[in-house]
């Protein structure tokens, strides 16, 4: 990932700890490891067996917990959340976990994903008297749970059955922690043993960070309850499938995470190898390989290894440029690119470069990067994209908002190559991704328009003619 404004963005990450005397502190460390999944807000709720406590705010986890806030989160159980807003917007009320009082006690919820029938559910809940204090989808989960019947497990199962789309959420009560995953498994969620207790995380990199021991992924359509009685599991839906978001592998997840048994770095390397295979068949040969930092570096390594070329640091990222930098004019935007990224002149001069990036949203950043390389003396730049063209919006919690923003929805690869001023441009296709991740294992809807769920009131937005 290089420029957040020209890349899809992840919505959130969740992390929970059950039965550990420093639950809040380890949740904080877990959130740190998940920070790449959202930087606009962070929060932790904890339970001491009598009541729930919560601290949250806008900004990075280190900014929200910069004083002694963790000391005010007692108890052995906690859940945490890092947020990037898609549904609901970037407002303070939407920062999670969200808390509510239910008939059978207090609950806190932290959610990753997007519920596609949120509008239908919200309207129905409001008609039944529910009052919403945020615009976040996640509050719908709390209301549905509150209105459910039976035990907390039954209430959560009933809430899950009513929701469609993508969700991986954690619920904390005074005595238990629940983890639930949507019936398609769109968003990742894993569980681990942690000393005498357990932890649950959006990605395994956070499990490693606190030295917990990975046990397994939570399955699509499954709810797992952690309590003093141990671990209980149940499925809430008959129809379930495996449709993990392919963009998790391509771009969002940290390279050291393992999703559904496949290491993210290894999957990205394989995508680089496939691109090298295609170029070998097409007779395209470069002098060096350059990956756009950071998420394309694994694919660049795979390409270079397969092609027998050297993988060079031709682009240098400035890690200290503020993430809220706003560039209103074209001149300022160009200047911002130069502040964020530099071409390494001595490396790229007079070279035919195979430039690897993970995806193209608008295409504007690709053009700026190619210009940077050519101004630094590159002879040719062949852009290779480690995913298929993004043509459809995502309604599952990834900010690929409208078809208007997606250049590949309007322009074919040949035209796009001219537009970004590349000497050639090549994408992977969905069949390539299936070779890497396995068949019928992932959602590829933003590439092929085959959404795993019904789209409810988003149908028009998904219309290819739209
Ligand atoms: S539509 Fe794309 S970004 Fe959204 S869940 Fe599916 S693969 Fe992921």
Q: Would you kindly provide a written description of the structure presented here, covering whatever features stand out?
A:
This protein is an alpha+beta fold and 466 residues long. It folds into 2 domains: 4-241, Glutamine Phosphoribosylpyrophosphate, subunit 1, domain 1; 262-462, Rossmann fold, CATH 3.40.50. The chain has 16 helices and 24 strands. The chain has helices at residues 23-33, 61-64, 118-127, 138-147, 152-162, 204-209, 246-252, 264-282, 297-307, 330-340, 345-348, 364-375, 413-419, 430-437, 445-448, 459-462; strands spanning 12-18, 41-47, 52-58, 77-83, 98-102, 105-115, 165-172, 177-181, 190-194, 197-201, 213-217, 222-227, 230-235, 244-245, 258-259, 262-263, 288-291, 310-312, 315-317, 341-343, 352-357, 380-385, 424-427, 442-443. It has a 7-stranded antiparallel β-sheet. Strand 9 and strand 10 form a beta hairpin. Helix 8 crosses helix 9 and helix 8 crosses helix 14. It is globular. The two termini are 28 Å apart. It binds iron/sulfur cluster (SF4).
What brief labels describe this structure?
six-stranded antiparallel sheet, 466 residues, Rossmann fold, alpha+beta, binds iron/sulfur cluster, 26% strand, seven-stranded antiparallel sheet, Glutamine Phosphoribosylpyrophosphate, subunit 1, domain 1, single chain
User: Number of DSSP strands?
Assistant: 24
Count of the domains: 2
3D shape: globular
* Small-molecule binders: iron/sulfur cluster
Largest sheet: 7 strands, antiparallel
Query: Share of helix among residues?
Result: 25-40%
Low-pLDDT residue spans: none
Strand content: 25-35%
């Amino acid at each position: 990932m290089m420029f957040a404004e020209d890349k899809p963005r992840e919505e959130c990450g969740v992390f929970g700890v059950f039965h550990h005397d420093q639950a809040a502190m380890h949740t904080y460390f877990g959130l740190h490891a998940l920070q790449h999944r959202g930087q606009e807000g962070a929060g932790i709720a904890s339970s001491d067996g009598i009541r729930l406590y919560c601290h949250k705010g806008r900004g990075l986890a280190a900014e929200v917990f910069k004083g002694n806030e963790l000391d005010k989160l007692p108890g052995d159980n906690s859940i945490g959340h890092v947020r990037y807003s898609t549904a609901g917007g970037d407002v303070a009320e939407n920062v999670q976990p969200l808390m509510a009082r239910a008939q059978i006690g207090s609950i806190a919820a932290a959610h990753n994903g997007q519920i596609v029938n949120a509008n239908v559910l919200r309207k129905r809940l409001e008609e039944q008297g529910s009052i919403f204090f945020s615009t976040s989808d996640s509050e719908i989960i709390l209301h549905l749970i509150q209105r459910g019947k039976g035990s907390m497990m039954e209430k959560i199962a009933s809430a899950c059955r009513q929701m469609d789309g993508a969700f991986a959420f954690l619920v904390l009560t005074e005595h238990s922690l629940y983890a639930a995953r949507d019936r398609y498994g769109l968003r990742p969620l894993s569980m681990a043993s942690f000393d005498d207790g357990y932890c649950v995380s959006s990605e395994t990199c956070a499990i490693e960070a606190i030295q917990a021991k990975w046990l397994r992924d939570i399955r699509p359509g499954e709810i797992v309850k952690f309590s003093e009685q141990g671990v209980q599991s149940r499925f809430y839906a008959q129809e379930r499938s495996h449709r993990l978001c392919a963009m998790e592998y391509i771009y969002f997840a940290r390279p050291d995470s393992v999703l559904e048994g496949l290491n993210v770095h290894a999957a990205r390397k394989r995508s680089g190898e496939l691109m090298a295979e295609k170029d070998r068949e097409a007779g395209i040969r470069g002098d060096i390989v350059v990956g756009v930092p950071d998420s394309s570096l694994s694919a660049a390594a795979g390409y270079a290894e397969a092609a027998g070329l050297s993988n060079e640091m031709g682009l240098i990222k400035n890690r200290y440029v503020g993430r809220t930098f706003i560039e209103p004019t074209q001149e300022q935007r160009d200047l911002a690119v130069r502040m964020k990224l530099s071409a390494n002149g001595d490396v790229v001069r007079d070279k035919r470069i195979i430039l690897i990036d993970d995806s193209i949203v608008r295409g504007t950043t690709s053009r700026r990067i190619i210009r940077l390389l050519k101004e630094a003396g590159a002879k040719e730049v062949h852009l290779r994209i480690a995913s298929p063209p993004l043509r459809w919006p995502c309604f599952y919690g990834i900010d690929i908002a409208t078809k208007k923003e997606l250049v590949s929805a309007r322009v074919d690869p040949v035209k796009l190559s001219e537009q970004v001023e590349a000497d050639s441009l090549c994408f992977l296709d969905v069949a390539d991704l299936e070779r890497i991740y396995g068949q019928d294992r992932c959602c590829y809807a933003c590439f092929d328009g085959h959404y795993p769920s019904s789209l409810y009131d988003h149908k028009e937005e998904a219309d290819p003619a739209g």
